[in-house]
Amino acid sequence: MELIFRSVAEAEPGEKWRASFQRHWPSYRRWYLAPGPEAIPHYPVCLAKLRHYMPELVFTYERLCALAGGDDIAARFLSLYRPPPYLTGCSQIAWTRGRPMLARNYDYSPDLCEGQLLLSAWHGRQVMAMTDCLWGVLDGVNESGLAVSLTFGGRPVVGDGFGVPLVLRYVLEFCERTRDAVRHLRRIPIHMAYNVTVLDRSGDFATVMLAPDREPAVTRLPIAANHQMRVEWAGYAKATATLERERFLFRRLNDPAIDEARLLADFLAPPLYTGAFERKFGTLYTAAYWPAEGTMSLLWPGDRLDQAIGRFIEGERMKDYSAQASRLALP
Fold first, then answer.
1. Three-class SS of residue 161?
2. Can you list the alpha helix ranges (DSSP code H) found in the chain?
3. Which domains are present in the chain?
4. Torsion-angle region of 111 (φ positive above 0: left; ψ -120 to 50: alpha; else: beta)
5. Among 22, 39, 45, 159, who pairs with 35 as Cys (CB 3.0-4.6 Å)?
6. Residue-wise pLDDT tens digits, 232-277
7. Contacts of 64 (CB under 8 A, 6+ apart)
8. Cα–Cα distance between 296 and 188 in angstroms, integer?
9. Where in 56-166 does DSSP place strands (E)?
10. How many CA atoms lie within 13 A of 163 on its CB side?
11. 295-300 and 303-308: which strand pairing?
């Protein structure tokens, strides 16, 4: 179980993005078509929805469609409107004791992760983010000092809306502060339940609990795992230990002896860190973002990659999860 993490800088969509598309599109195409052709929204519908809810993205969307060769299925996929359902794990915290930091674990299968940290400036604002679905965002920060991250909300409901990685892309491209991000998160429909934590350079934070079948809940919770206000999918909650991870983070939040370094070390050990890769719930990376400085780190046990918007270094790093899977797998 190996995954190559790539750090890529490309201000405007170009050949580097095309190379990423060619590398990942066969797998994404199989996933996107798996529910059957009748489940896939037609291109005019996808474009109309994007124009209605996130019109500022349309120019870049059309450029990406062209780089993808003008393929109809690829264009529908890239809209991320009503994609097939998918589940992730993840734990995250907005830490404001000292310099503001957003930290998270991304728990998923290495076979289904792009592993790309992209520095771009598609709409005039630099964005440094881990990508998903070729231009969406799992977590990231922009040069204005806004950081975002997502976790799955622990509800099996699927509805009419966008895949949340594209909405996080929109937030980082066009928002400067937590209050701006919350306003957009509340108005853009999401196709599954997700928790989005937002932190800006001033230390203002919010966790927005999104779902396709009810109004967004905007909270001042600095912590999110894989449920929302209460557990609504008991089997998933038990399998992912979401309550245990949430309680652990709350204890750390209230412990006056915990500092930034110790908190990040906690993300690299159970219960936050898991090796359940055979169930597509292994921790692929820990990310920490410091929005005031425009810096971030990717962390793994015994290894760390530091990047900054103003000092970004391209490169690759291979990670093998086989050892972690055998040592840290959940019972």
1. coil
2. 15-33, 43-53, 58-67, 72-79, 164-174, 178-187, 234-240, 242-253, 260-267, 322-328
3. 86-328 (3.60.60.10)
4. alpha
5. 39
6. 999 999 999 999 999 999 999 999 999 999 999 999 999 999 998 8
7. 13, 17, 21, 78, 134, 135
8. 27
9. 91-95, 101-108, 116-120, 127-132, 136-142, 146-152
10. 26
11. antiparallel
- Nearest CA among 74, 88, 98, 60 for reference residue 26: 74
- Round to whole Å and give the CA distance between 303 and 321: 13
Q: Which amino acid, residue 176?
A: E
Cα separation, 8 vs 29, whole angstroms? 23
Tokens of 213: 């079948």
> Tokens 């594209």 label which residue?
166
pLDDT digits (tens, 9 = 90+) for 42-70: 999 999 999 999 999 999 999 999 999 99
User: Angle, to 10 degrees, between the axis of helix 43-53 and the axis of helix 58-67?
Assistant: 150
Tokens of 244: 């245990």
- CA–CA separation, 126 vs 268, rounded Å? 29
Res 327 pLDDT > 50: no
**Phi, psi angles (nearest 5°) of residue 184:** -75, -40
**Residue in the structure block whose two tokens are 């078509």:** 33
- As a residue count, the chain comes to 331
Coil, strand, or helix at residue 311? strand
What angle, rounded to 10 degrees, do the helices at 242-253 and 260-267 form? 170
Identify the pLDDT of residue 329: 40
Q: Which residue has the tokens 């008991």?
A: 234
> pLDDT digit string (tens) for 140-153?
999 999 999 999 99
Q: Please give the helix or strand (H or E) that residue 58 lies within, else none.
A: helix 58-67
